[in-house]
Design a protein that fits this description.
Blueprint: H1 2-8, H2 15-36, H3 41-52, H4 54-69, H5 75-103, H6 109-117, H7 133-180, H8 188-227, H9 233-271
Amino acid sequence: MYLLDRISGRKDLGNGQIFLQATVGTVLGIGAGFVLFPAEASLIGVFLVALAQHRTVEALLDRNRDEIWGGKRRPMDANFRLALSLLVFFLGVLLTYSAATLLVPESRLMALFERQIGDFDVVSITAVVFDDLGAILGHNILVLLACFLFSLLYRHGGMLLVLAWNASVWGVVFPYIARTAPDLGAGGTVVYFLKSFASIFPHLLLEAVGYVLVAMAGVFISKALQKYEVGSDQFNQVAMAVGKLAVLAGLVVALAGVVEAYVAPALISILF
């Protein structure tokens, strides 16, 4: 990451640079986790992925602060820019985990991604059973709260860890199904994965947006509690922004639940 900083510079982090750093950091995290801690490579890899992006996300938060308090952008525009950059990071990690799951030898899958795969025993995308809307919303709200608390307590470290973990799980599970499915058809593993990914990507993207927004809210209020007196104009301004982000995150995650409950099964039935 330090080498990439020297090559690309840090004056204005572009989303292409963020995606590249997320990709390189994820490759290094997966590899280093396996080499240094083979018994817990799947967990250590995620920690290393999050650690590698620490300086990048710190720079993004500094940029967001300077844009808002320096009057360079409206708060809504600055927060949108930050959310988009964090989403790019998330997608970079997810796609790198997906590529790794598709490319590594099958004998290494469990060693590298044991925690992500867990007890997942679905052998075909058509066998995936989606919960009803109420259960999905309940689960998503719990994850949303956990993301907020991690970000509140550990700031961008907690934000990175939650985002990297979710990206790793989503990035591993569906390629893993494609590697092990008995009903691949003529298209083979890659086509099977792409169709699976197309089926789940709409609600996955919405969930990721919700988690990014609520993580931003947690970091913002944590910083405000340390920097400003509660009740001051500055604190109230931050608290208002945090409230808006939290409400928006809840709405986006609720929409993601609807898409997961109704759209994802429909897409699977169409594509498979």
